[in-house]
């Protein structure tokens, strides 16, 4: 559980936004940032984001739902959302756990993800859902 990143305290209800500010989210983070990670699957290694996870009820779109664009590929299970104006990935409904959203930690207000230091990289090339 990470309750502070740099000088920013992670609030129980923390706002996040895309680069242009058209999309604003409210994340429920009572335990702060839990289990930040990278992934090396084909989309994640290209977008380079560090993600955290919340339950589906843990993200509320405050503003700009009309600017969110959905992208799906391969099994079409995960739902990746991007701002259609600035292109920033904000969040996705996870393939490995469809009851959770992954969110872009770099979108959290006041948070520089580089202040997290070393972050674990998950093996998304050999996805857990492919090992059945």
From TrEMBL:
Listed SUPFAM superfamilies: Mss4-like (SSF51316)
InterPro entries assigned to the protein according to its UniProt record, in alphabetical order: CENP-V-like, CENP-V/GFA, Mss4-like_sf
Keyword Lipoprotein among record annotations: no
Domain CENP-V/GFA: 14-130
Gene3D superfamilies (UniProt xref): 2.170.150.70
The entry's keywords: Metal-binding, Zinc
PANTHER family: CENP-V_GFA DOMAIN-CONTAINING PROTEIN (PTHR28620:SF1), CENTROMERE PROTEIN V (PTHR28620)
Family the UniProt entry places it in: Belongs to the Gfa family.
Protein name (Swiss-Prot/TrEMBL): GFA family protein
Organism: Vibrio tritonius
Origin organism lineage: Bacteria, Pseudomonadati, Pseudomonadota, Gammaproteobacteria, Vibrionales
């Amino acid at each position: 559980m990470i309750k502070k990143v740099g000088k920013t305290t992670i609030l129980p209800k923390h706002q996040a936004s895309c680069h242009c500010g058209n999309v604003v989210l409210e994340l429920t983070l009572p335990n702060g940032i839990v289990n930040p990670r990278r992934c090396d699957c084909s989309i994640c290694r290209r977008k380079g984001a560090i993600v955290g996870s919340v339950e589906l009820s843990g993200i509320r779109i405050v503003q700009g739902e009309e600017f969110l664009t959905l992208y799906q590929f391969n099994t079409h299970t995960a739902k990746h959302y991007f701002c259609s104006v600035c292109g920033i990935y904000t969040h996705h409904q996870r393939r490995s756990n469809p009851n959770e959203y992954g969110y872009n930690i770099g979108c959290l207000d006041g948070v520089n993800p580089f202040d997290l230091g070393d972050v674990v990289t998950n093996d998304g090339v050999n996805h857990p859902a492919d090992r059945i």
